[in-house]
Amino acid sequence: MVEYDSFSAWLAAYDNSILTNLSLFLDIFTYFILALFLLYLAFIKKDRKKAAVILVTYICLILLIPTLKFAFSEVRPCSAPWKIQCPSDYSLPSGHAAAVAVILIAYLTTRLFPYALLAYVVVSLSRIYLGVHVFKDIIAGTSLAFAIFLIVEALLSKSLGNYFSQSEEDKRTQRKRWLVESKK
Question: Which residues have CB under 8 Å from 2's CB, separation 6+?
Answer without folding.
Answer: 74, 75, 76, 77, 79, 91, 134
